[in-house]
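hiii so my PI (J.) wants the whole complex modelled not just the main chain, which honestly fair. so below is everything: two entries, each one labled with what it is. i double checked the lines twice but i was tired so who knows lol
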Amino acid sequence: MKLQDIFLFSFKTVKSYPTRSFLIILAMALGVAAVVVLTALGDGARRFVIHRFSSIGTNLIIVLPGRAETAGSFPGASMGQTPRDLTLEDARWLGQLHQIRRYAPLNVGTAELAAVGRLRDVTILGSTGDLLPIRHMELAQGSFLAHGAQYSAQIVLGAELAEEFFPEGNAIGQRVRLADRRFIVSGVLARQGETMGFNSDEIVIIPIDHAQALLDTTSLFRILVEVRNRNDISSAKQAIRELMVQRHDGEEDVTIITQDAVLATFDRIFRALTLGVAGIAAISLAVAGILIMNVMLVAVSQRTDEIGLLKAIGAPGSDIRRLFLTEAAWLSLTGAIFGFMLGHVGSLLIRLAYPQLPAWPPVWASLASIVIALVTGILAGLLPAARAARLDPVKALSGR
Amino acid sequence: MIQLTAITRIFHMGEQEIRALDHIDLAIASGEYVSIMGTSGSGKSTLLNVIGVLDRPDSGRYQLDGSDVTDLTETEQARVRREKIGFVFQSFHLVPRLTAAENIELPLILAGIPPAERKIRIEKALHAFDLSKRAQHRPAELSGGQRQRVAIARATILRPTALLADEPTGNLDHRTGVEVVALLEELHHAGTTLIVVTHDRELGLRAHRRIAMRDGLIVADEQ
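here's the output for the full assembly
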């Protein structure tokens, strides 16, 4: 029997049992669609998070005081030392490195903001003018340390705070009190919403010197560094480490985090999650495979007479086996194709319903689900096909 | 053409051992018209199945057209059946989900004949067996006589040298049975070896050579 005839004949068989074929194809299609949709969701979540992270700032290196030890011992404990502070002086030296475009020293604290008879606790960021471009923040009005006036008592309000204290939109130039110090509002941040659990609409930004005085510290919370070029990240990281070691008497007591590393970690976590849900969805493919096996076994006993006849008119067992295998393959392939389409329509609906979530099914998942569907289908067909091929034609024809 | 030597076929029914064929020696020449008669369980159907290479004897040799087919592999035997044997069954054994034309086409597909040629040969067969108007009907929509004509068309489409019929009129009324027998005899006149298994004496006596069986043995063989 020619291969094309085998394919045609078994396709005709599939068509001649419409209800049965429809149900199996549906089961297989749902399995494949589940894999496609769930991986689309997982990958969509990954892209969503990565995108959010990238919006914090690209080419970013963060320098923290203290060494994150992986050996388990407390930093500096063996030497009887506490980690050295990270100072503004350190930051200025960092700024001299040629790989670095700009840097922003950062202090964080909380204090009470008072103006026009209102009071509120706010988060304070103390920094320089370069903080805004590094963190991709924008001003809605005014300016921040626009004239390099490092020491003037300017303050930038978050959008939410500006609206709360000055609902008429006349915040610029107003006097406010932060703890026991007076500031003049020089700018208002544009609304940005929440990034990484940090609502930039409810913060104030003041010059770093004022912040250190207000918080009574000389140690920086961290230094944000933006390198000129994405390729410079590793060399900049190395240069920063060397500079810090040199400035801190040969002690490596800072931790340097790159945005890349954070992104890569999240990327890995979400990929693993996606694989996990894909694996769970793939179980439904296995169930569909077992369903195919079951139905094909029933088909063999139903078609005993036909198998006997085919053998009597000269079909060898190998042809019978191939006929049943291709039938199982048709069922699973058709199911896989419908499932593929169903899954892509489902992903489209998700994207329409949640436009922020880029729920595109990954290509590997679509291909893998189709291949797995086909392979399970054929594996499921093996046993029934072998049984059909072994049937004794005399018994099959006599209906015994 | 057909040469059976000491063919034995044993079935096991629980503890019991049934010798369906007990050292049968039989020679049938090309172009003969043979009937095999006997009661149910006499071994006549088993003999037909062995002659049709559908059943393997437990011992003995079988030569078909001068070559020994006893020890051929399953695939080789399938090929022998396809090329040399045509089966006609009492219950027709048509594939219910295929049309008359598709049922007739089956042996051509199995033999790997290209579709264009298949079409021509089916047309011819449909015409020859007066089934042209019924080509697209499924077996359930055909009368018993038409079904058996489809079965005969299918059995003969590859021009086998031997046509083996197992109770070909068993499921038909008398008049249709006569028509089917006439058709089979026509094929015999055209040169096909015809072997008919039946317990219908009237049908059996029409054959030129009549073999009678009882308990797995040939008890009479008359020309």
